[in-house]
């Protein structure tokens, strides 16, 4: 006589599990709840009940982050995006808002300054370690969300709103600021006003010689994407904000170069563009990526084909992310 396999308990509606796990979290059993969020959501996914898996994971990510459980919240946030992918869920305003709600719960905590004694140094070391974890957690979540958006309905460079979220978090929270990475996401976003303000803020605290690099990088990145409108906006808006805040953007060959490039692109003058690259070679080589951006610009605006078609900004999108 064959033995019957035990029947698997039917999955209840997601709301029942959401309420049950909320009680467990509120009792302080964060780890226990985390394991249940992961195992129950996996069962919903296996049953192709993606909507309920998403509801459960979204509720869990938000609740863990509200309770300052960064690692747990970030893990569930990434699982939420993975469920979006598995369910082939379209990128739309509703799902963008759900991603944004999780993002807004990631903590933003300023790193302490004004060190005076060993206790302060210890506090700074701990704060830097915590900031690194925050950035890693939020970045993993938003980078996964950007990849989902590319696959399921956003522009080919990814959701502009998600790129702005990631740029803002990297700028405000990174213990070791990488302005090139921040700029990479801002130029794929839809908020050049915020980008200009961020550049000016950076200019107020960066080392000498980094300010003109930040401005030139932003303009060349926009141009390498074929976006002359926002490139011109950044040039004009940064100048305006610098004057209003009584800062100084020292004249430099690099700023002069990007100013001339903007004018040259308006005139469709490839020989002049090539002459500028030759004359300002030393300034361009201050940042290794500038020559590749200029190759992208030559292709976008003048139809100059690359020697290696696999090169270029778009080919490197996920490497930079």
Task: Write a structural description.
- With 321 residues, this protein is mainly α.
- Helix content is 69%, strand content 0%.
- It has helices at residues 14-26, 30-46, 50-66, 70-86, 93-103, 118-151, 160-173, 179-186, 192-203, 211-224, 228-244, 253-267, 270-279, 281-284, 289-302, 317-320.
- α3 (50-66) packs antiparallel against α4 (70-86).
- The radius of gyration is 24 Å and the shape is elongated.
Brief descriptors of the model:
321 residues, mainly alpha, 0% strand, elongated
Helix content: 55-70%
- Helix and strand pattern: HHHHHHHHHHHHHHHH
Poorly predicted spans? none
How does the overall form come out from the CA principal axes? elongated
Largest sheet: none
- The overall pLDDT average reads 91
Distance between the termini: 59 Å
Helix/strand-derived class?
mainly alpha
Count of β-strands: 0
Oligomer: single chain
The tally of helices reads 16
**Backbone CA Rg:** 24 Å
The share of residues in extended strands comes to under 5%
What's the quick description here?
With 321 residues, the protein is mostly helical. Helices cover 69% and strands 0% of the residues. The termini are far apart.
How does the SSE layout of this entry go?
Layout: H1 14-26, H2 30-46, H3 50-66, H4 70-86, H5 93-103, H6 118-151, H7 160-173, H8 179-186, H9 192-203, H10 211-224, H11 228-244, H12 253-267, H13 270-279, H14 281-284, H15 289-302, H16 317-320
Helix pairs in contact: 1-2, 1-3, 2-3, 2-4, 3-4, 4-6, 6-7, 7-8, 8-10, 9-11, 10-11, 10-15, 12-13
């Amino acid at each position: 006589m064959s033995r019957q396999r035990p029947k698997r308990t039917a999955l209840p509606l997601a709301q029942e599990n959401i309420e049950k796990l909320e009680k467990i979290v509120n009792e302080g059993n964060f780890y226990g709840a985390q394991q249940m969020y992961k195992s129950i959501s996996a069962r919903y996914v296996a049953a192709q009940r993606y909507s309920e898996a998403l509801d459960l994971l979204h509720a869990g990510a938000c609740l863990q982050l509200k309770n300052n459980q960064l690692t747990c919240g970030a893990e569930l946030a990434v699982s939420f995006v993975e469920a979006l992918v598995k369910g082939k869920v379209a990128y739309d305003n509703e799902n963008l808002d759900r991603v944004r709600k999780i993002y807004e719960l990631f903590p933003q905590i300023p790193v302490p300054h004004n060190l005076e004694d060993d206790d302060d140094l210890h506090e700074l070391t701990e704060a830097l370690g915590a900031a690194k974890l925050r950035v890693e957690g939020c970045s993993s979540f938003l980078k996964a969300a950007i990849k989902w958006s590319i696959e399921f309905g956003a522009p080919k460079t990814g959701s502009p709103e998600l790129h702005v979220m990631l740029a803002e978090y990297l700028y405000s929270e990174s213990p070791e600021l990488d302005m090139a990475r921040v700029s990479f996401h801002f130029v794929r976003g839809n908020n050049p006003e915020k980008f200009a303000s961020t550049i000016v803020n950076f200019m107020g605290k960066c080392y000498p010689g980094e300010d003109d690099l930040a401005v030139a990088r932003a303009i060349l990145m926009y141009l390498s994407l074929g976006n002359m409108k926002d490139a011109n906006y950044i040039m004009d808006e940064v100048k305006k904000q610098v004057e209003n805040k009584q800062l100084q953007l020292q004249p430099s060959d690099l700023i002069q170069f990007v100013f001339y490039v903007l004018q040259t692109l308006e005139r469709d003058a490839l020989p002049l563009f090539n002459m500028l690259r030759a004359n300002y070679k030393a300034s361009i080589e201050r940042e290794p990526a500038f020559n590749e951006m200029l190759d992208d610009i030559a292709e976008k605006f003048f139809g100059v084909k690359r020697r290696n078609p696999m090169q270029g900004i778009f080919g490197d999108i996920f490497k930079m992310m």
